[in-house]
Amino acid sequence: MFLKKTPGLRTAILPDGSILTQADLPQPQTRWVASRKAAVVDAVHYGLLTRDEAIRRYGLTEEEFDAWARAFRQHGRNALKITHMQKFRQP
């Protein structure tokens, strides 16, 4: 198996002991569910992607990504679910 050379990290170990790799990241044209949003936020937080790379790669706005990151950091994965967004949204 050959690994493509990429700048930066290839893997990150998350606090729960799981490993996040570049291959675990969702495809750019994806249906956004909470687990995929969390994977992108974790990838940025642990250095697999830069914030700007994530925004460009997934076609997000800065505000959208920042809202995901803030909700995930404050309330966990459930805050990224569409059905829970109103509950966790900041006034």
TrEMBL record:
Pfam families: DUF1153 (PF06627). It comes from the Bacteria. One of its GO terms (molecular function) is sequence-specific DNA binding. InterPro entries: DUF1153 (IPR009534), Trp_repressor/repl_initiator (IPR010921), WH-like_DNA-bd_sf (IPR036388). This is DUF1153 domain-containing protein.
